[in-house]
Fold:
Amino acid sequence: MPRYLLSHDIGTSADKATLFTLDGQIVKSALSPYPVHYFNGNWAEQDAMDWWRAFCRGNRAVLEGVDPSEVAALSVSGQMMGCLPVDREGDPLRNVIIWTDGRAENETELLKSKVRLESFYNIVGIRPSPNFTVEKVMWLMSHEPDVYEKTHCFLSSKDFINLRLTGVFATDPSDAGYTHAYDFYGRCWSDIILDAAGVDREKFPQVLEAGTLLGGVLPGIAEEAGLAPGTPVVEGVGDGRAACLGTGVLEPGDAYICLGTSSWVSRVTTSPAIDPLCRIQKGAFAQNTYNDGGTMQAGGLSMNWLKSQLALHEQDIAAREGGSPYDGINRLAEASPAGAGGVLFLPYLMGERAPLWDMGAKGAFLGLKGETTRGDIFRSVMEGVAMNLATIYHIMRDISEEFFTMRIVGGGSKSALWRQIFADCFDMPIVKTNISDEAGSLGTAVVAGVGVGVYGSLAAVKEFHRVESISEPIPENVERYRSLQPIFEDAYLSLREINHRLGKL
Structure:
């Protein structure tokens, strides 16, 4: 008798496997890490078979003591915008060029020379950038033409796992939209973009709606995968859409912040209007609704960098006494006032997507003085991420005032201080529920359940949320950040040329 739903998130640093009961309770969750290979400044690659091996390990971890035949269905979400070429058998032809990779700058400029920015944006809903799939495919065509010629299909992370499980080459509209080759209004691959890029349409998979049953786990792969043969595999969504669904952001005016490795603000809206300056992304959501959002490269990544490079003392204490290094980071940051003693942090450690779209952007600490404390520096990193996402939020407000609720999820949402900083920067209550790190996993599990009829609709996810805290804006802090916000935004503009010159050294 089926009793469980199984979800996987193929993240940047690990696969996260989560086993849920049919009423949304977590039975067990397991992380299976794998490396990212960073090199040549802003290049980043992974081995897709590391994803697969981690997926298999995750299944064995969460299904220990459970009969795999009791899994009603599984679905996979994962990192988006990657470039994974596979042959007709589905075997990778090279390492994956992942989302954070920025090597395809020349190809991006070439694409921009062939399609006007406004036209591109009106088709794709996002401006051209080296971070997206089709620009990376163009790089392959130029630098590794033999790989391109041998490629049967370009896949995202979840699509590769689904292919190995079922033999089906497919993707969903959310991942298709982040290839930069998909017409989100027409809901089809764009001949205009693909012709301009010089990429063969046949090298992209069929697009199926999330919740479509792809088939059962193939008998020949079931034992390796740690699953029962025939287990239903349901088409999932990209990690961004999974987090949106799992957070319960389904109705117009619902919005959320996700503080993962990359971080974003996203909302559902009835407004078809787009940003005239093409700074944020627009996509179709459900019938008569749209999704506005903006993703920054290094949200949680900035805090992880801070921990690994500037918080060695906090790491030592955590190693000796238990707990997390972030406990010490939060304590010191909380002792610093709003505005971090005049220190600003620009969180552009991997270039930047929204709202700057500048892979030459660099991180910086500004305003350092003799009396600056480590707490000021720690707090400035939290504030820099928050102010960058606040810039995106303000752009969305200018398009439409349709903001009614703002939830927060992701690893960074555990910090009460960071939640308060967001409430003050956004001047809006920030709601944390019991679903935090598990938002993407829950969203993917509900998609699996809808695919096999366990749930009648995606709205079932709302039954699993319970509000744990609401961070209300503090008026004096709101005024402080209103004063700092334009200085923060001007700092990037003032340093842009210098950082580009540094990048050429």
